[in-house]
TrEMBL record:
This protein's UniProt keywords: Kinase, Transferase
Taxonomic source organism: Rhizophagus clarus
Keyword Transferase listed: yes
SUPFAM superfamilies tied to this protein: Ribosomal protein S5 domain 2-like (SSF54211)
Protein name: Glucuronokinase 1-like
InterPro entries (alphabetical): Glucuronokinase-like, Ribosomal_Su5_D2-typ_SF
MF terms (GO), sorted A to Z: kinase activity
Length: 284
């Protein structure tokens, strides 16, 4: 009898009123962009930037509205809104990869499914690295060797202790950056046509990643210096195969004033003048 129901007895559970998911920003620490070329990478999530997606049951026949606030600023006039997930996908096709894709990733936490949507539906040249780290979280060493990928369709993923990362990592980023899907297009064609320079570069990225894993796990006193040197080599190689036109002319090197990289205040001022922002990274 309902009026004699005792504490702890079965009660019908009501469905949740809303579902909330977060998609955090990711950092390709080493090996990028070899994930799309049977390479190896190390990535981790940061909590500095994220997309929050809230799903609320809609019992009406009217379309729901999904809104995206650029840079999380409600006063920004570049807000994006979608009347359905289908519209979100269509806008991704028309407006590009970066912003709308964050919402798609927050909605669907499955690496290969995310990648297949991007490659097959949106025609984006991409690899698994970003999808893996946003699903696994933390700090992950990824091996996308051809034999493994051909047989299984996914890589070998090793989750590392996030505390292995050296303290004081920071990132500089352009406010008006390019679409990374477009960036990969030319290199992808060169790789598939057998361009030896690109093929050799991908092998070198693998070596950088293996060295970085060893540094993170086994080194202490020289970890920051050794990892920084590898990060510079990784970027220099990316610049060599992609070019300054793609990566940006200003990349942290300053021939007129080499000491700028050791002067934090001077570097900060230079970044601001070039409309580049920076922040300390907070691993998620």
């Amino acid at each position: 009898m309902a009026d004699r129901q005792q504490k702890g007895s079965f009660k019908e559970k009501k469905p949740p009123m809303e579902l909330i998911h977060y998609s955090y920003a990711r950092v390709g620490l080493m090996g990028n962009p070899s994930d799309g070329y049977y390479g190896k990478t190390i990535s981790f999530l940061i909590s500095n930037f994220f997309v929050r997606l809230t799903l609320i049951p809609n019992h009406s026949t009217e379309n729901s509205i999904i809104s995206f606030l650029k840079n999380g600023n409600s006063n920004n006039d570049c807000n994006l809104s979608f009347d359905s997930l289908n519209s979100l996908v269509e806008m991704s096709k028309n407006k590009g990869y970066d912003k709308e894709n964050c919402l798609l990733q927050a909605t669907c936490k499955t690496t290969n499914l995310i990648l297949s949507v991007e490659k097959d539906e949106l025609n984006i040249s991409a690899g698994l690295q970003d999808r893996v780290i946003q699903v696994y979280g933390g700090l992950v060493y990824m091996d996308f060797n051809k034999d493994q990928m051909t047989k299984h369709g996914f890589g070998i993923y090793e989750k590392l202790d996030i505390n292995l990362l050296p303290k004081g990592l920071w990132i500089a980023y352009e406010l008006n950056h390019s679409d990374s899907g477009e960036i990969h297009t030319d290199v992808r064609k060169r790789y598939e046509s057998g361009d030896q320079k690109v093929i050799d570069a991908m092998k070198q990225f693998i070596s950088f990643t293996e060295q970085a894993r060893n540094i993170l796990i086994h080194k202490n006193e020289t970890k920051r210096r050794d990892l920084a040197e590898l990060m510079n080599k990784n970027f220099d190689l990316r610049r060599e195969i992609f070019g300054d036109q793609i990566l940006g002319l200003w990349n942290g090197d300053d021939d007129d004033d080499p000491a700028i990289l050791t002067n934090a205040e001077k570097l900060k001022n230079e970044l601001v003048k070039k409309e580049i922002r920076f922040c300390w990274l907070i691993p998620q």
